[in-house]
Design a protein that fits this description.
Strand order of the largest sheet: 1-2
Protein name: Hemerythrin-like domain-containing protein
Number of domains: 1
Shape: globular
Strand content: under 5%
Radius of gyration: 26 Å
Structural class: mainly alpha
Helix content: over 70%
Distance between the termini: 83 Å
Number of strands: 2
Order of helices and strands: HHHHHHHHHHHHHHEEH
Length: about 300
């Protein structure tokens, strides 16, 4: 039900290096839309556990409801959604990485988690019981964490292999994952806001810029029209300083790419300027540099 693609540790440490000592603007990593959803899941599970430990059953139940909705959306991003042409992550990996998701039984593992999830639903919704929550929820949390780690171990090398072989992963995210969040009104807004609400509480606790990496990735797979709306939701949730960090990273990358394009354009234009050639000077015709030409003329 809740999955990832590449180790969040690898993702965020790479991002941290690129922003601190990489000599340039941090680059967006489109796959972090999925990868850092792991951090949302882990952070949300931590928040639920904290409320249970504090004896705040209502806070735990409210957090569980939000978490459960997010998990369901994330599962759809992996498995696809009934009635949608978007394939989802698992199908993409199976198609381009030797059926890695199918061979590992990742879809079946989701079904196993459903059973544990129902036990948690019982203690939060059907028969509210804080003592039972203390017993049952940690079991679900531990199994879910094991599942996440298992998916990382399977999908990390698969995705890396796809990228190295030239598979257009960013394009697939745009066409076969993001549309799954757009199929039902309100889902994308919830996905973005909840992710940021959780990530901001757990940002940089271990030196990993979760908020910046995730939102930068989201920007990289958005159309300009989509980003106008998504950016407004992000700005609504994040503190001013943290939003500025995200926006500055995006603008720095844009400016860097613009400068690179201009430099390339200038280099190509310079190649098109021919040397002064075929000018008869002293009975000879040959290519000369401007300096050589004028030296000959005025000597």
């Amino acid at each position: 039900m809740v999955a990832s693609v590449v180790s969040t540790e690898s993702t965020n440490s790479t991002a941290s290096k690129s922003s601190s000592g990489g000599g340039g603007a941090p680059k967006p990593m489109p796959m972090a839309v999925m990868r850092n959803a792991h951090e949302v899941i882990r952070g949300a599970m931590d928040d639920i556990q904290e409320s249970i430990d504090n004896g705040d059953f209502e806070a735990a139940r409210a957090a569980w409801t939000q978490f459960n909705r997010f998990s369901d959306l994330h599962m759809k991003m992996e498995e696809g959604r009934k009635g949608s042409n978007a394939k989802g992550l698992f199908a993409m990996v199976d198609e381009h990485a030797d059926k890695a998701a199918r061979k590992a039984g990742l879809r079946d593992h989701h079904m196993n988690l459903y059973e544990l999830e129902e036990d948690v639903v019982d203690i939060f919704d059907k028969a509210p019981d804080i003592d039972r929550a203390r017993e049952v929820y940690p079991i679900f949390r531990q199994e879910n964490e094991s599942h996440l780690k298992e998916e990382e171990d399977v999908l990390m090398p698969a995705i890396q292999k796809m990228i190295k072989s030239g598979v257009p992963v960013k394009k697939y995210i745009e066409t076969d994952i993001i549309p799954l969040l757009l199929a039902k009104e309100g889902d994308m807004e919830f996905f973005i806001k909840f992710s940021n609400e959780v990530l901001i509480r757990h940002d940089n606790v271990d030196g990993k810029p979760r908020v910046r990496v995730w939102n930068h990735a989201l920007w990289s797979v958005a159309t300009p029209e989509q980003w106008k709306e998504w950016d407004a939701w992000i700005k609504e949730v994040l503190p001013e300083g943290k939003y500025a960090e995200v926006d500055n990273a995006i603008q720095a990358f844009r400016n860097e790419q613009k400068a690179k394009k201009q430099a390339k354009k200038d280099a190509e234009a310079a190649k098109e300027v021919p040397p002064i050639a075929n000018i008869d000077v002293g009975g000879r015709s040959r290519s000369r540099s401007p300096k050589q030409f004028f030296k000959k003329i005025f000597s």
